[in-house]
Automatic annotation (TrEMBL), chains A, B:
The keyword Flavoprotein applies. Gene3D superfamilies: Butyryl-CoA Dehydrogenase, subunit A, domain 2 (2.40.110.10), Butyryl-CoA Dehydrogenase, subunit A, domain 3 (1.20.140.10). Residues 128-237 form the Acyl-CoA oxidase/dehydrogenase middle domain. Belongs to the acyl-CoA oxidase family. Its cofactor is FAD. It comes from the Bacteria. This is Acyl-CoA dehydrogenase. Keywords: FAD, Flavoprotein, Oxidoreductase. Residues 273-431 form the Acyl-CoA oxidase C-alpha1 domain. Residues 490-629 form the Acyl-CoA oxidase C-terminal domain. Pfam families: ACOX, ACOX_C_alpha1, Acyl-CoA_dh_M.
Length: 638, 638
């Protein structure tokens, strides 16, 4: 076992067997993208690859055994993440079919719908997930599409009342889907019961639009050429009453509505909560793509030389301070986020296997999933972009892969809703005592429920981890400025303390809206919106460092654990440096102490530089699957 | 005249007539990109458009009248910038042919080469600019290609000795160029005289490679599909002696080398200095692309609503604080950079029209050109990216244009060399007393020449502008913490003082390398590299604020000037906020004062929000040419 192997084992986490098998089997499928294919050719190609996946077991992983699946939610997410290491179009296509569409059928449907699942796994039934509309993306509760029950015929009438009600950016909708899981306002007996999901056939066996259905093609995009995104609008399309996915809301033959959850808002968020796996897969897949890009840039930095003394060999890019500053903190973040993502997947897996999942844990998972999705997808965009620039003009050529990743990864920051809205969702969970009951993310709904006291929010949760508390308690100095910034307990305490302060002060600002009229309440919320969103961000920073710390504690190889500790310190210093003005302005770091951050960080670069190749190998993207032509070039001196 | 018209006039600057004419004439040419074209189709399409440009006068603008041009360098750059508002592939293609290739012939050649210029203008002779090699991009002085004089035949033998000597990423090289301006080490009588430029025919009249020449296609890239980038390698290719562009270095029939500039390094940088227009065009064009993206995102923010009170109309995106925070500071930077770019173009124009340009001014222009290129192209990448995210999934569709801009603009950050190297070049100019004589950008060459004193570097230059000095002198408070951060003089003084301090301390660190051996000198340089690069960045921040201030002083409309002042303040606050930890840690802002920055910035957003449409219109990108389908959608309430 090399040190890189040990790192890879630590990063692979609980579903290591899935990763190892995927590395071999997916490499055999030859998933490289051919940029010469035209748009339809690229879509056909990806669809053909999708069929090849059926045999790998990944499609079946996420469904319950009683429905014909493997009942392994962790495997399902891990499998999707591994696809992302190979091709993001294929990852999205798989995610749409088995994760979003199949997930809606499994989680929102009942027995009569579950019978479809074997056909969904086998691609005998190809569907799409018709949630987003032109006019409503992040705000799903306000979708305009309606499904009105007609007791005469015992049908729902699905309708798009306006242009902005058109479903848009829907993967599989332009070509391959024959059926859609359509999110629409359920109306019966003249009353709306909020958003529900309906199965609506959209294409006949010849691929023609069904009567009343109009599909359109979103055509070219910034990337993801293998995914056929499209639009769907409905002109009074009739579907049988049974096509309502009725686990959380049912309409009987006579049009009477019933639901196990009375409150419309709570029902809606419960439904969305069952679909959490999609959000977790998006963040994890983006992270996987960033691992590919950083692997390419890291290897290139160890190969390419530039400038140097007239009388000697030119200097490796990896040996320049600026190059290290651009590359190594991103690699450290990659490690940190991988530990956090693995922890999240394990928690999700446990909850989803449970017959009676803990409501508090489910709520916490939803908050983290939203926040991690935002932070991981931004990290991926930034890492792929920086990797491109770190490879210069060569990074811009499709044959070196990064530019393809860059086009493909871009949309991940707005998948599942705008990342700022994702962080606002985390903040809502942190700031409101009754997040699940809060009707929506609209500002007024939110400020109304801000808890009167949030002072214990961080400490309560941190207490769950004895390890973290022990480290914090053992930190040197005990509260004065002499804390060693290289000490993990000190770092953990800084992150925790910052979170506590940011949340408390945000809550205090929002509490002023209590009793205010609508306009004034909006004004108060809006003035604080950047502060509110910051709550989500600093919260994620903390849980990531905690997950990293916990991950190191689980690492059994001492040398690997030592190296991981140095990486974690670089991560922590990098986060502190990014927010240094806050730590200074709030007297968490004296000016003198703050000035050490940059030099400590630079020292950390020196420590990690000799391990660059090892760190990159630890990401576990086999060199042969990187698909970057320039890594195969002869060495300059060859 | 509307307020927007007045803003546009202020931003259009001295070559307003060129901008106005381009807005009309280029719109008539229908330069929209068809994403359905395959790669060869896209290249043909762009090449056909290039031919349409000949009649506009833009191609002739940059060449001297005596060579058949218009002798209007400012028009040449402005014309290229306007192309960038329409299509970046066309801009690059035009820049390669008339700017880089034509510019090399004009500026490095003599009479016998200048005779070619009318054919270059007319596209009768299509060339490429073969500088970058696989192994050497930013470090042009170390190119490996050789041109060895053979007195027997009176020819140069052009040769690529290694794989890494292959010319790469060369625009026009894959298809359209028949001739290349090749940068190679000139060797005669066994001695190398450094990099010179040679005209080398690369294709015959049938488009076949000339004997000894091997071209290859770089094929797909992250964008710029209309540009045929390719590779060229030379296997002992013979060209007549006269094909040396011999203005700065000549070889006589017998192989004797002569040059008006003795020092090899100085000669090299003088030659590069004559090609400055390319660098200025790259920054200006990136800025133009960012204006398009921000115009689209700004208009979308005024159209799209999301979330809102259950009982009322949903809120416009533009009314959310977070949305304003993401969009308005980028718009303010766009304004700031446009004033700085216009100032730079005017200075370049003046120098290039002069028979005897001032050496100090030329040197300063070169430093600024490198620095502005870095800052403007990063700004463009960031603005296009943020605009994409501000438009959500819709921003990812090609039909809404931003995603195409995003793919195209990406490479600008490494055009002309990596942006960090560009900033290092500025730093070199600031830190060394004899920048022009310094052999190169290699660390040792640089530290050797660090001036023993740089203390007056900022003040000396600032003194050139009486207006700036007057504002600084008139600032309130006179040095204590009560400075009003909204006061321009205070802002200018903060920027100037920061630059002075950063440069001084960097110089002091580098001076330690005096007398050190190579390894130790490299270590000292490398430890300080991030600090050195920061010199370039803070220098550009200062000159941009000064240029903005000067631009406002020239604005004749009072209302427009008032609005521009608010925009300039947002720019200044945004720069200060980004570097707040520095201002605090170096006692330029007390903790209390620093805490006001964010709220002052937010107040500025409130002030500017009502002017969002006006500010966007001020960029002068006609709505009809934005090419974003969703701006034509019916309003949500329609």
């Amino acid at each position: 076992m090399t040190l890189a192997d040990e790192l890879r084992i630590a990063l692979d986490g609980k579903w290591r067997h899935v990763r190892e098998e995927s590395r071999t089997r997916l490499a055999e499928l030859d998933l490289a993208v051919d940029p010469d294919l035209d748009l339809e050719g690229a879509r056909d190609h990806t669809f053909a690859q999708l069929k090849d996946l059926v045999q790998t077991g990944i499609p079946a992983a996420g469904f319950r055994e009683s429905h014909g699946g493997l009942g392994d939610p962790g495997m399902a997410v891990t499998g999707i993440e591994m696809l992302a290491q190979f091709d993001l179009s294929l990852m999205v296509k798989a995610g749409v079919q088995w994760g979003l569409f199949g997930g809606a059928v499994e989680n929102l449907g009942t027995d009569r719908h579950h019978a479809l699942i074997p056909r969904i796994i086998d691609l005998d039934l190809v569907g799409c997930f018709a949630m987003t509309e032109i006019g409503h993306g992040s705000d799903v509760q306000s979708l305009e599409t309606t499904a009105t029950y007609d007791p005469q015929t015992q049908e729902f009438v699905v309708h798009s009342p306006t242009h902005s009600a058109t479903k848009d950016y829907i993967g599989n909708a332009a070509r391959h889907a024959s059926i859609a899981a359509v999110f629409a306002q359920l109306v019966t007996r003249g009353e709306s019961h909020g958003v529900h999901c309906f199965l609506v056939p959209i294409r006949d066996e010849h691929g023609e639009d069904m009567p009343g259905v109009t599909t359109a093609d979103d055509h070219h995009k910034g990337g993801l050429r293998g995914v056929d995104n499209g639009r769907i609008s409905f002109d009074e399309v009739r579907i049988p009453r049974e096509n309502l996915l009725n686990r959380y809301g049912n309409v009987d033959e006579n049009g009477a509505y019933s639901s196990p959850i009375d409150d419309t808002g709570k029902r809606f968020f419960t439904m969305l909560g069952t679909l959490i796996r999609g959000r977790i897969s998006v963040g994890g897949s983006a992270l996987a793509a960033s691992e590919v890009a950083l692997s390419i840039a890291g290897r290139y930095a160890l190969k390419r030389r530039q400038f140097g003394p007239a009388d000697g060999e030119e200097t490796l890019l990896a040996d320049y301070r600026m190059h290290q500053r651009r590359l190594l903190p991103l690699i450290a973040r990659g490690y940190a986020y991988r530990f956090a993502q693995n922890q999240q997947v394990a928690r999700m897996d446990k909850l989803q296997r449970s017959d009676n999942p803990d409501a508090q844990q489910q709520r916490e998972l939803e908050g983290r999933a939203a926040g991690l999705k935002a932070i991981l997808t931004w990290h991926a965009s930034r890492s792929v972009q920086e990797s491109r620039e770190l490879c210069g003009g060569a990074g811009y050529l499709a044959e070196n892969r990064i530019s393809t990743l860059r086009g493909d990864i871009d949309v991940f920051t707005t998948f599942e809703g705008d990342n700022h809205v994702m962080l606002q969702l985390v903040a809502k969970e942190l700031l409101t005592a009754y997040a699940h009951e809060v009707g929506g993310l609209d500002p007024l709904g939110m400020v109304k429920f801000v808890a009167s006291t949030v002072t214990d929010v961080v400490r309560e949760r941190t207490a769950a981890s004895q390890l973290i508390q022990r480290l914090i308690d053992a930190r040197p100095g005990g509260g004065d400025d002499d804390h060693d910034l290289l000490d993990r307990g000190t770092q953990l305490e800084l992150f925790e303390d910052r979170e506590q302060h940011v949340i408390e002060t945000a809550a205090r600002r929002l509490q002023r809206a209590a009793g205010a009229d609508s306009a004034e309440a909006f004004r108060i919320f809006n003035n604080a919106q950047d502060h509110v969103i910051r709550c989500g961000r600093v919260h994620i920073d903390r849980i990531v460092l905690e997950a990293f710390t916990a991950g190191i504690a689980r690492c059994e190889d001492e040398d690997a654990a030592d190296l991981l500790r140095e990486v974690a310190t670089l991560y922590a210093l990098s986060v502190i440096e990014d927010d240094l003005a806050w730590f200074m302005g709030h007297n968490r770091l004296s000016d003198a102490r703050a000035k050490t951050v940059t030099s400590l960080l630079n020292d950390q670069l020196d420590k990690l530089r000799p391990h660059l190749l090892t760190l990159v190998e630890g990401f576990g993207v086999p060199e042969a699957t990187l698909g970057a032509a320039f890594l195969l070039d002869p060495q300059p001196d060859a």
